[in-house]
Design a protein that fits this description.
This protein is α/β, with parallel strands linked by helices and about 240 residues long. It folds into two domains: about 60-185, Rossmann fold (3-Layer(aba) Sandwich); about 185-240. The protein has ten helices and six strands. It has helices at about 1-30, 35-50, 55-65, 75-85, 95-110, 120-130, 145-155, 170-180, 200, 205-210; strands at about 110-115, 135-140, 165, 190-195, 215-225, 230-240. The strands form two sheets. It has a three-stranded parallel β-sheet, with helices on one face. A three-stranded antiparallel β-sheet has the order 4-6-5, with helices on both faces. Helix 6 links the parallel strand 1 and strand 2. Helix 1 (about 1-30) crosses helix 2 (about 35-50). The longest helix has 28 residues, at about 1-30. The mean pLDDT is about 90. The structure holds S-adenosylmethionine. S-adenosylmethionine binds next to helix 6, strand 2 and helix 8.
């Protein structure tokens, strides 16, 4: 009888902990940016890394390999969004802001895109799949583990010919790219900048600069932090020359 009570309380305790982890805490933090990031990006990630002896990017790659069709970028995006909404949050631009990203890429129809921060290649796949033929995307990532996963995600989407993934820090590479592009520098009249996470975690200095500079026409697209209800948005800025 005693054992039965212990067993019942262990099972009950485990169920309660699971409910807290799976539903109660995520629901409680989903309107608060700081708490949401601490919960998803620190506590849950470390806990799952320890329990599964794998990393979040590795788990994202596994979800892609299991659920997405090779050579089909949209199925890769869908598999990552499904994983991150239902299993484990991750810092991709996500489905909601991703639609804004898609519409900006389609409107601008760029010949060259420079992306700063690849992570697992989610936004890279979104952007590259919308580029016109012969256009190319250079994406920079300074974390070699993320870059290794992103290469596989991009290859799974069949986009490796359109994407050049450069491993390194933007502060090191941007001056080198400027040299490579010569006097034209990186921006020319009409170039479009699109910045993510300008509200959460936030980029107040960037927003102040870009909105007050007479050299840019800037517009804010209100949305939500990926896979949550916390306000976040994208800032689109056109370089006026
Ligand atoms: C928010 S994540 C990018 C998400 C990605 N764009 C997406 O939507 O799928 C930011 C990434 O930028 C990388 N990063 C941060 N600072 C960087 C820098 N100075 N140079 C290159 N990569 C950087 C981080 O390692 C991280 O992978």
């Amino acid at each position: 009888m005693m054992w039965l009570i212990v067993l019942y309380s262990c099972t009950g305790g485990a169920a309660l902990l699971y409910a807290l982890y799976r539903w109660v805490i995520p629901a409680a933090v989903q309107y608060h940016g700081g708490l949401a990031l601490i919960w998803h990006d620190v506590i849950v990630e470390r806990m799952l890394d320890t329990l599964t002896q794998s990393t979040r990017p590795q788990r994202i790659l596994a979800a892609v390999q299991k659920n997405a069709t090779r050579g089909d970028p949209r199925s890769v995006v869908k598999a990552i969004d499904h994983f991150c909404r239902n299993k484990e949050w991750a810092m991709n631009v996500g489905d909601e802001k991703g639609c804004i990203l898609d519409s900006v890429v389609s409107e601008v129809n760029p010949a060259t895109v420079l992306e700063l921060g690849t992570y697992c290649g989610y936004s890279t796949v979104r952007i590259a799949s919308l580029l016109p033929p012969n256009a190319k995307l250079i994406t920079l990532e300074f974390n070699p583990d993320f870059a290794a996963i992103a290469r596989q995600v991009i290859a799974w989407a069949g986009l490796e010919d359109k994407v050049q993934l450069v491993e390194g820090a933007s502060g090191d590479w941007i001056p080198k790219m400027k040299e490579q592009f010569g006097e034209c520098s990186l921006l020319r009249k009409g170039s479009v900048l699109l910045a993510d996470n300008v509200i959460c975690p936030g980029a107040p200095e960037y927003l102040e600069f870009i909105r007050s500079s007479p050299r840019y026409k800037s517009q804010y697209f209100k949305s939500h932090l990926e896979y949550t209800k916390v306000e976040d948005g994208l800032e689109k800025s056109v370089f006026l020359g």
